[in-house]
Every structure is written in structure tokens, then in C-alpha cells.
């Protein structure tokens, strides 16, 4: 019963999310990382949580899997026709975006708003 009360109490709390905004060679990019998606399971045997964010890149919007490794963050996604796209932002805000299908690489700077 205590476990159920704990779970229910957490439902009303706001998510801990960071919004990252980037300028990638003149293209605006923004995405959000919800830290709760990276938390360990509450109950043994609980299935892994789905980690997803929505990326806004210029006029395009697409779902992606967020990356959070210490202070390094970003996202990766499967694109059209088997393409893979990835953005990795370092702790100083320097970021690189790559698109394997288009052979595209964009460098830029990002800022994390908490």
C-alpha cells in the first residue's frame, strides 16, 4: 500500500526537464530532455521506460531518443530511407549534428534552459 501511495504522490509533481536551444550553422534546433525518463525502475521487473523527445529543427519536427550522459546531452533518430541523425552537445555548449543519409554535418552552439 505504501508503494501505491508513493507512486500516486509522484503523479502530481512536475517533470524535471531541460530545454536545449541551438543554432546549428544558422538552423534553429530545440529539444527537451525529461530526466524522469532516465530514472531506474520503481518495481523490480518493470519494463524500461521509453525515452523520447520532440525535436524542432527549422520548420521540421520529428521524434527522437534523448541522450543524457553526465553533462553531455543530445538526441538521435532514425530518419527517412534509413537515415540516422544525431546531435551531441558538449558541456561548453559546442554541438555537432550529423545526418548519415545526406552526408550532412552542422556545427553550432547550444544553451540549456532549466
Strand arrangement within the widest β-sheet reads: 1-2-3-4-5-6-7-8
- Please write the string of helix (H) and strand (E) elements: HEEEEEEEE
Distance between the termini: 34 Å
**Number of domain modules:** 1
CATH arch. level architecture? Beta Barrel
CATH topology: the name is Lipocalin
Q: Strand-residue fraction?
A: over 45%
Helix content: under 10%
Rough shape? globular
The poorly predicted ranges are 1-14
User: What is the assembly state of the chains in this entry?
Assistant: single chain
Number of helices: 1
Total beta strand runs? 8
> Largest sheet, if any?
8 strands, antiparallel, barrel
Question: Radius of gyration over alpha carbons?
Answer: 16 Å
Given helix and strand content, the structural type is: mainly beta
* The CATH class: Mainly Beta
Mean pLDDT: 83
Descriptive overview:
Strand 4 and strand 5 (72-78) form a beta hairpin. The chain is 9% helix and 53% strand. It starts with a helix and ends with a strand. The protein has one domain: Lipocalin (Beta Barrel). An eight-stranded antiparallel beta barrel has the order 1-2-3-4-5-6-7-8. It contains one helix and eight strands, in the order H-E-E-E-E-E-E-E-E. The model is unreliable at 1-14 (pLDDT under 50). With 114 residues, the chain is mainly beta.
Task: Present the secondary structure layout.
Layout: H1 2-11, E1 17-24, E2 27-34, E3 53-57, E4 60-69, E5 72-78, E6 84-89, E7 94-99, E8 104-113
Antiparallel strand pairs: 1-2, 1-8, 2-3, 3-4, 4-5, 5-6, 6-7, 7-8
Amino acid at each position: 500500500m505504501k508503494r501505491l501511495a508513493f507512486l500516486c504522490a509522484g503523479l502530481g509533481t512536475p517533470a524535471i526537464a531541460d530545454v536545449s536551444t541551438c543554432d546549428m550553422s544558422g538552423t534553429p534546433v530545440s529539444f527537451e530532455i525529461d530526466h524522469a525518463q532516465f530514472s531506474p525502475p520503481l518495481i523490480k521487473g518493470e519494463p524500461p521506460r521509453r525515452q523520447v523527445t520532440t525535436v524542432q529543427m527549422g520548420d521540421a519536427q520529428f521524434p527522437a531518443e534523448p541522450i543524457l550522459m553526465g553533462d553531455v546531452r543530445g538526441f538521435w533518430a532514425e530518419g527517412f530511407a534509413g537515415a540516422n541523425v544525431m546531435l551531441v552537445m558538449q558541456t561548453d555548449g559546442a554541438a555537432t549534428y550529423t545526418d548519415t543519409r545526406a552526408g550532412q554535418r552542422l556545427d553550432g552552439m547550444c544553451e540549456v534552459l532549466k
